[in-house]
Design a protein that fits this description.
about 260 residues, alpha+beta, Metallo-beta-lactamase, Chain A, six-stranded mixed beta sheet, 7 helices
């Protein structure tokens, strides 16, 4: 059965429908031209795989031209095996072969519902679980037994990788910490829960990016306090080459302070 994909956000649903709840939410949008649908086979016919190194032990996976929101996934290669951070709607034989040749993956974790996309296709293809935060359960368009709905503030998903619920952007908004990443300096994988922006000396915190709704100050304050306990030099954002290479920990703290100073003045 061919399952519908929202052409605007890339979310795959388990059955045809008229609406896309992800896009109708104020953190996303329905285009002025209206709701549009496609499917994975149609997308494969019009796009090709893009697989490029993004850092030490980190490989970006996406497609050209960009589809839907345009994020890229990250294959994180740790001492205990490979893991996929975030997800993209596009999946083809080239991507499957590249990941298989690299040793496969032990699981998938996704920062927030905008990137759930075809996660179930990925889970079935590689026979692995998808770790999603319980607080965002309502947004999954294709429920499936492969989903691990985790709860609480943190989850150790491999010996090297820990998921951290910050609650920014979505209640289940999650980042992933790799202490041994970036050649031992530590890496934070943030999607756009902590958004890497053109000014690589700062990051941003937003409730809605396309509609420019700022995140609530108590949420940002809590997120900064949580991340203050972690050591990391690099921050890997949601987009191709959206990476803070150095001083990531201090950049997060400095950016949160700047944000909170602005909204309280």
């Amino acid at each position: 059965m061919t399952l519908p994909l929202c052409a605007t956000c890339g979310t795959q649903y388990s059955a045809p429908r008229a609406d896309c709840p992800i896009c109708e939410d104020e953190r996303q949008y329905v285009p002025q031209s209206g709701q549009r649908w496609t499917d994975l086979d149609t997308v494969r016919a019009k796009h090709t795989a893009r697989i490029e190194a993004q850092g030490p032990g980190v490989v970006g996976i996406g497609c050209e031209p960009r589809f839907a929101i345009g994020q890229r996934a990250l294959l994180v290669r740790t001492a205990s095996g490979n893991f996929l951070w975030d997800c993209v709607a596009y999946l083809d034989d080239e991507i499957v072969a590249a990941i298989t040749e690299a040793g496969g993956i032990s699981g998938i974790a996704i920062s927030h519902p905008h990137y759930y996309t075809t996660a179930i296709e990925w889970a079935h293809t590689f026979d692995v679980p998808v770790h999603l935060h319980e607080n965002d359960r309502e947004w999954l368009g294709r429920p499936d037994p492969s989903v691990d709905w985790w709860r609480g503030g943190t989850k150790q998903i491999t010996p090297e990788l820990e998921l951290i619920n910050l609650g920014v952007h979505f209640a289940g908004g999650t980042v992933m910490h790799w202490p041994d990443g970036e050649n031992g300096q530590g890496a934070l994988f943030s999607g756009d829960i902590v958004q890497v922006i053109p000014d690589r000396g700062h990051v941003a915190f937003m409730y809605s990016y396309p509609n420019l709704i700022p995140e609530r100050p108590p949420v940002v304050r809590r997120a900064a306090a949580i991340l203050a306990r972690y050591r990391f030099s690099a921050i890997y954002g949601a987009w191709w080459d959206a990476i803070v290479r150095d001083d990531g920990h201090d950049i997060v703290q400095r950016s949160a302070k700047r944000y909170l100073d602005f909204v309280s003045s």
